[in-house]
Amino acid sequence: MTADRSPFRRLHGLKRWIYRDDRPNAVARTLNRFWARQYGAGGRLARARDVRLEVTGRTSGNPVSFPVVLADLDGEWYSVSMLGENANWVRNVRAAGGRAVIHHGDSWPVALHELPPDRRAPILKRYLDVAPGARPHVPVDRSAPVADFEAIAADFPVFRVEGFAPAG
d(Cα 36, Cα 127) in Å, to the nearest integer? Predict the structure, then answer.
């Protein structure tokens, strides 16, 4: 079987298709709603790092929820935008001054603090280790050295999550 026909390549292509132009299409929105419920409930399908992030919408003022995978590094938790700067949740978090709520069985009011690009590279690398679904969106292989992530760090917002304390 050639690499172009491998299941990984097909999955990579599907992932890019459902997030064409870094915006979720109808399929992605449906999957996001499903995973947001699963992650928020903290059930069997969700690891401790799989959470539902809720933030106030910048235009509607209503709560907006979506599934995210948090990366852990050196005892801290981080939320990374796999779709880059223009992801709606990034703009909503910025407009909300970093105030959000994490749901995973329980709920935690949290503060998200955006990191400057020069501090993002090791977190981006860790994120690709723990969030396989993000790999098609980040143009650096997860096995690359941290230095390779420095070149793309400005394109992928990273937020330190203050106040999240999962059990176990």
Answer: 18
Residue found by looking up tokens 């203050």 in the block:
162
Burial call 26-48: b when 16+ CB within 10 Å, e when fewer? eeeeeebeebbbbbbebeeebee
Mean pLDDT estimate for the chain: 85
Tell me if residue 129 falls in helix, strand or coil: helix
Lookup: tokens for 53 = 């992030």
Instruction: Report pLDDT digits (tens) over 78-127.
Output: 999 998 998 889 999 999 999 999 999 999 999 999 999 999 999 999 99
Nearest Cα to 152, choosing from 141, 168, 166? 141
Packing angle of the helix pair 26-41, 7-18 (nearest 10 deg): 100
Q: Map residue 16 onto helix, strand or coil.
A: helix
Spatial separation of the C-alpha atoms in residues 83 and 78, rounded to whole Å: 15
Q: Which helix (H) or strand (E) holds 101?
A: strand 99-104
